[in-house]
Amino acid sequence: MSPPTAGAVLLIYGNHRLLVEDELKKVQSRIADAGEADFNLDVFEAGTGPIEDALQAAETLPFGSDRRYVIVKEAQNLGAAEVKKLARYLENPSDTSALILAAVDLKSNSSLVKVVEKGGRVREVNKRRDQVPGWIRGRFKERGLKVSGKAIAYLQEALGEDLMAIERAVEKVSLYHEGEEAVELDEVVSLVSPSAERSIFELVDRVALGDADQALKLLGRLQQQGERYTYILNALARRFRQLLLYRALREEGRREADIVDYLKLPGNQAWMVGKKLRPQASRLDEDTLRKALSLLVEVDMAIKTGEMEEEFAAQIAVSGLSSLVAGKTPPRLRIGRSA
Are 318 and 212 in contact, with CB atoms under 8 Å apart? Predict the structure, then answer.
C-alpha cells in the first residue's frame, strides 16, 4: 500500500489510543519505505504550538521529491479557531503535501471530523468487543507465540477496554514465557492482575445485583491497591443515576440508541445500555433507585463534614446499596468512625 498522495488530507481517529497510534505507524512506515521520510516529513503535536506551524510546513515545497508529509498528532486538542483555519486550508490544499492528523476520543459528529470529511478523508479505527479476542491473539502472534482461548478471555475480562493495558500485559507475558508451547491461563493469571478500574466496574455490577459479600471483598481488594474511595463512590453514584435515567427514558418510549446519546456514552461503552442498564433496571423500581441515590448523598455529606471517614463510608455505601437492591433494609447511617 502506498503512502498518502500529495494534496491529500487524512484524519485518523478512534476511541483507543493504541489503535490510532498503530494506524499512524503504518502510514509512517509506508512513507519511510518510499524513501521520503528523511527531508520531507514534519511531525507536530496539537496543543503544544499553533496549527499555523503545521499548515506552513504543508505549504513548503518538498526537497528533492515531489511530496512532503506533515503529521499532526493529538489533533483532538485543536481549538475551534484552529479547526476553522484547517477548514480554510482544505479549501485549497497544497498539491505537493499530504497532511495527516491523528486524534483520540473524537466523536463522529465533532467539528474536526465534519471539516475533514468535506475536503479530505476520514479513517476511524476501532475494535468492537467481539473483535478484541482476535486482536489479542494477533499481538501474541507478532511475538511468535500462540495463546489459549481461556488466557485471552482472562485478559479481556481482567483489563476490560484498556487496549494499552492489554498490550503491556501481552508484552510482560511474552518476556516471561519459556519454550514453544502456547501461553495458558495459569501463566497469564500469575503475571497479570485485574486493573483497578476493571475491579471498580465489577464492584458496581455486584452492588447492582445485591451481592454484598462479593462487593465488599472487591472493596477490600481496591483498598489494598490504594484506590481512592471517592472514585469508588462516584462510580456507584454514576451507575444508579444512569439506571434511574434509563427507567425514565424507557417509560417515555425512547429507543436504546437515543438513550446512549442522552447518557453521552462514548462509542466503546454503548453496549452497556443493553448489557448492563436494561437488565439491572428491570429488577429495580424508581423508589429503590431514589433511595439508593439518597443514601449516597448522605454518605457524601458525612464525609465532607468530617462525620465519617472515607473507608467506613464506602463500606456503608456498598452494604447499604446492596441491601436495597436485594429488597432488604439497609443498615442505619452511623456517624463517626467505626470501632
Answer: yes
- Put residue 7 in one of left, alpha, beta given phi > 0 → left and psi -120 to 50 → alpha: left
* Spatial distance between the Cα atoms of 51 and 294, rounded to a whole number of angstroms: 48
CA geometry: angle 290, 292, 294, nearest 5 deg:
70
Which class in CATH covers the domain with range 129-191?
mainly alpha
Fold category of 9-124 in CATH: Rossmann fold (3.40.50)
Bridge partner residues of 72 (DSSP): 44, 101
Binning pLDDT at 50, 70 and 90, where does residue 227 land?
A: confident
Q: For the stretch 189-228, what's the b/e string if a residue is b when 16 or more beta carbons lie within 10 angstroms of its beta carbon? A: eeebebbbbbbbbbbbbbbbbbbbeebbebbebbeeeebe
Task: Match 510546513 to its residue by C-alpha cell.
Answer: 57
* pLDDT recorded at residue 122: 93
Residue 338 amino acid letter: S
Strand boundaries in 60-112, DSSP class E: 68-73, 97-104
What is d(CA 123, CA 112) in angstroms, rounded to the nearest whole number? 13
All cell numbers assigned to 171: 508484552
With contact defined as beta carbons under 8 Å apart, do 262 and 220 qualify?
A: no
Q: Rounded distance, CA 57 to CA 74, Å?
A: 17
Q: Taking the domains of the chain in order of start, what are their residue ranges? A: 9-124, 129-191, 196-325
| pTM exceeding 0.90 | no
Q: Give the closest residue to 233 by CA, choosing from 200, 282, 186.
A: 200
Yes or no: say if 90 and 117 are a contact pair by the CB < 8 Å rule: no
Summarised one tens digit per residue, pLDDT across range 129-187 is: 788 899 999 999 999 999 999 999 889 887 877 788 889 899 999 999 988 899 999 99
- The number of residues in the chain equals 339
pLDDT tens string 71-117: 999 999 999 999 999 999 999 999 889 999 999 888 888 999 999 99
- Which three cell numbers mark 327? 429488597
Retrieve residue 110's grid coordinates.
465533532
Q: What CATH class does 196-325 carry? A: mainly alpha
Chain CA centroid to CA 225, Å: 21
